[in-house]
Amino acid sequence: MKKSLLFCAALGLLLGTSACSNSLLQDPQTSKTLGAFLRNETEVEEYVNAVYGTLQAQGLYGLYLPAITEIPSDNTYDEVPANDDGIYGQLDQFTTIPANAIVTGVWQASYQGIQRANVVLSRIGNVSYASSSTRDARVGEMKFIRALLYFNLVRLYGDVPLVTQETTDPNAYFGQGRTDKAQVYTQIIKDLTEAIPVLPATVSQAGRVRQTAAQALLAKVYLTQQNYSAALQQLQSIVTSGRHALLSNPADIFSLTNKNNSEVIFAVQFASGVNGNTEGSIAYQQFSPSGTVSGAKGHNLPTKSLYALYGSNDRRKDVYVGVTSSGTPFTKKLVLPTTVITDGGSNQVVLRYADVLLMLAEVQNELGNPTDAATALNLVRSRAGLAGTPATTQADLRAAIALERRLELVGEGQRWFDLLRTGTAISVMNSYFSANNILTTIDSHNLLMPVPQAQVNTDPAIKQNPGY
What residues are paired with 179 via a beta bridge? Predict the structure, then answer.
């Protein structure tokens, strides 16, 4: 019995469900509910919305994912490491343990989203739609979301279990082990490549995946793999499409009155004052300095060294990052809720046009095209009120692009992945620790998060990452 319960817990982590325990408390018919669902267009559309809803989860873009992708870097830190059982402080100090709730939450919520996407993809082909193009678009949306979740997982944990079919029997995945990350990347690229031609160029409903989102994500995947030519093709398609543009004023990008503007390519949607204040985000409260608002925890605050990088003439200074009267930096990309403090209406931006231009600059530089690289970089700098970059050599342009990505994309979950992608995480972070008199150093084992302990404990085929 004990082993069975542990087995159910592990599968809940892997598949994002709690089918074993919950089925004991529910009417037996509930085990047939999903089987009898998704029979028509209305039901599929409802379930597709549920897949999008997964992205709002605390384990994903609702809270943990922006933290786990920024706090380990030199961009942000945890103000009071002891808060919340030290789960954020562990990320900051590189003392993360396999039982860490953030590590577990990201894993679990990701696989829940993957399972839901798999359900749609497994069944939608048998459902009649009034418009075949709408049905095709939903397939593309689900493949994008599945690819996005696996891309996050493989960068955070390395090899991860690859599940691409609806899971009706959890026992089938016990003992599978972790799939080599190369195979996971192959699936990510396949999903995005298949999604691009069926996704619409524009969307009538804010927050839905469109073609440029899949292209931007695929470009980031190729960039991560150092396949610069393939990345360039996707990035140039976005630029020449004319569907996105930099807003003239940085302050308008994250305004609640200008959400999903032309610069935003894909964002997870949150809204204040909806459904009894249940559609808002708690990120503003959690990512505010202690004592500034009710329940503020000081998690994921911009570092003072990051804030100091903004020049006095940089239009993003005190627009992206502000400073309290006591001198503590805080993000201004999240807006103070007007309902209750845990009901923030700011979306979590996943992909935007400034990121596309900076990726384009990086790709052109790596391909040996410094003039084109500087041109793309200077578009972002010009919007910030800065002069063109003085960098001309490949090495100097690399540094200039990396700096611009920090200043432009802080708080959007890019910096830690950038350090991993460029192979600079160890050197950059150890230099940061030394310069700030922090008694911490990291090595190669710190480049991956531990696999959740509950998963390792209950499935011998799931091996822990080295060093944990």
Answer: 160
Let me know if residue 150 belongs to a domain. yes
Contact between 106 and 152 under an 8 Å Cβ cutoff? The reply is yes
Structural domain total, the chain: 1
38 sits in the region (left: phi over 0; alpha: psi -120 to 50; else beta) called left
Rounded alpha-carbon distances, angstroms, from residue 410 to 75, 220, 376, 415: 7, 17, 19, 7
Over residues 328-368, the pLDDT tens digits come to 999 999 999 999 999 999 999 999 999 999 999 999 999 99
Strand, helix or coil for residue 96:
coil
Residue 330 lies in a domain: no
Token look-up 């009417």 returns 27
Domain extent at residue 456: 1-22+34-199+426-468
Question: Which residues, listed in sequence order, are joined to residue 330 by a DSSP beta bridge?
Answer: 322
DSSP string, 288-347: S-TTSSTT---TTEEPHHHHHTS-TT-TTBTTTEEE-TTS-EEESSSPPPSS-TT-B---
Residue 174: its pLDDT value, please?
82
Q: Give me the torsion for CA of 166, 167, 169, 170, rounded to 10°.
A: 170
The residue written with tokens 């009894």 in the block is 276
Q: Is residue 414 part of a domain?
A: no
Report if residue 209 sits inside a domain.
no
- Quick check: 8 pLDDT over 60? no
Domain holding 119: CATH number?
Answer: 1.25.40.390
| Per-residue confidence band for 31, with pLDDT thresholds at 50, 70 and 90 | very low
Mean of pLDDT over the chain? 92
Q: Which residues contact 331 (CB under 8 A, 6 or more apart)?
A: 287, 300, 301, 302, 320, 321, 322, 410, 411
Beta strands in 11-87 (DSSP E): 76-77
Q: How many CA atoms lie within 13 A of 447 on its CB side?
A: 19
CB contact set of 423 (below 8 Å; sequence gap of 6+): none
**Distance, CA of 371 to CA of 393 (rounded, Å):** 10
Mean pLDDT of 309-316: 98
pLDDT band at 12 (very low <50, low <70, confident <90, very high): very low
| DSSP secondary structure letters along 372-421 | HHHHHHHHHHHHTTPPPP---SHHHHHHHHHHHHHHHHTTSS-HHHHHHH
> What's the pLDDT tens digit per position in 202-243?
999 999 999 999 999 999 999 999 999 999 999 999 999 999
H or E segment at 109? helix 101-123
Cα separation, 251 vs 315, in Å, equals 9
DSSP annotation string for 184-224? HHHHHHHHHHHHGGGS-SS-SSTT---HHHHHHHHHHHHHH
- Per-residue confidence at 168, pLDDT binned at 50, 70, 90? confident
